[in-house]
């Protein structure tokens, strides 16, 4: 375990949730019902919504969970929608609880030798937050850390982009990214910041199989300067074509699966 000390870890958030109260779209609502982690308060379906297999399962799971389905007109549903394409179904539910970062790190380290976290620093676009959450779940990430003052919460747009992934992930919320970096380093995590200008390539790092945090910054300015300074290493994604960088959601997909591949190959067998 690395022995590093960072004062003023500042890991406590001002409230205990990361959003996610309104869920729109077939897959996002279905995963809300499948996961069963949150109490569903209201479920609305447009009267003329095509009865797809997904919608039939939504009805079935709602009935099994004793959740009333309000069939409303398309115009009424659109008035309630907060995204441009709710796909004829909207649910409201209890917000997603934020796990204190100290507890998330402790519990993850108790479950496995090398947990894998993603930290979102200054990513304000809800679509990117949701898309990264979807990638994180697919890549086996153990926790997603949001920054209260810089990153978007789980808005309806983020939830729709995540296509249900938010129902199966653990989330922590911190005030700012640098404090989270320091706390996780104290717990023995290696913190790797994605930086397109780095001369070190992510694929060349030997620490990807260790307790790991990948930090992603906003498309405009990247990571905050202090978070960048505190990372153990800054790494870039190797490019093979005529482009200097990827958008943050695409970069997160490449980076998370690059790390996942290394971690799968080094995981103890049996």
Structural account:
The structure is a single chain. This protein is α/β, with parallel strands linked by helices. The protein has 2 domains: 72 residues, Ribosomal protein L30/S12 (60s Ribosomal Protein L30, Chain: A), CATH 3.30.1330.30; 166 residues, Alpha/beta knot (3-Layer(aba) Sandwich). 35% of the residues lie in helices and 18% in strands. The strands form 2 sheets. It has a 6-stranded parallel β-sheet with strand order 7-6-5-9-8-10, with helices on both faces. Strands 1-4-2-3 form a 4-stranded mixed β-sheet. Helix 5 links the parallel strand 5 and strand 6. Helix 1 packs parallel to helix 2, helix 5 runs parallel beside helix 6 and helix 5 packs parallel to helix 9. The longest helix is centred in the C-terminal third of the chain and has 19 residues. The two termini are 24 Å apart. The N terminus is likely disordered.
How are the secondary structure elements laid out?
Blueprint: E1 22-24, H1 26-35, E2 40-46, H2 53-64, E3 69-72, H3 74-80, E4 89-93, H4 101-111, E5 116-121, H5 126-138, E6 143-147, H6 156-162, E7 171-174, H7 177-186, E8 190-194, E9 212-217, H8 225-230, E10 233-235, H9 248-266
Parallel strand pairs: 2-3, 5-6, 5-9, 6-7, 8-9, 8-10
Antiparallel strand pairs: 1-4, 2-4
Helix pairs in contact: 1-2, 5-6, 5-9
């Amino acid at each position: 375990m690395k022995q590093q000390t960072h004062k003023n870890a500042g890991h406590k958030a001002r409230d205990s949730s990361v959003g996610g109260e309104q869920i729109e779209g077939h897959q996002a609502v279905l995963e809300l019902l499948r996961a069963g982690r949150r109490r569903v308060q209201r479920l609305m379906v447009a009267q003329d919504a095509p009865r797809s297999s997904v919608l039939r399962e939504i009805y079935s799971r709602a009935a099994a969970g004793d959740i009333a389905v309000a069939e409303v007109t398309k115009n009424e549903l659109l008035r309630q929608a907060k995204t441009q394409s709710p796909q004829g179904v909207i649910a409201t539910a209890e917000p997603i609880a934020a796990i204190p970062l100290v507890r998330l790190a402790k519990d993850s380290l108790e479950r496995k030798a090398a947990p894998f976290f993603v930290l979102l620093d200054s990513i304000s676009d809800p679509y990117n937050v949701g898309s990264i959450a979807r990638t994180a779940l697919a890549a086996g990430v153990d926790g997603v850390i949001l920054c209260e003052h810089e990153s978007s919460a789980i808005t309806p747009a983020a939830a729709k982009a995540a296509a249900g992934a938010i129902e199966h992930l653990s989330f922590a919320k911190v005030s700012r990214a640098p404090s989270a970096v320091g706390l996780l380093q104290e717990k023995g995590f290696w913190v790797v910041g994605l930086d397109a200008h780095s001369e070190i390539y992510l694929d060349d790092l030997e620490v990807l199989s260790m307790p790991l945090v990948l930090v992603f910054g906003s498309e405009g300015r990247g990571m905050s300067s202090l978070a960048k300074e505190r990372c153990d290493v800054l790494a870039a994604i190797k490019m093979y074509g005529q482009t200097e960088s990827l958008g943050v959601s695409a970069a997160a997909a490449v980076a998370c699966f690059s790390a996942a591949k290394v971690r799968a190959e080094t995981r103890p067998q049996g």
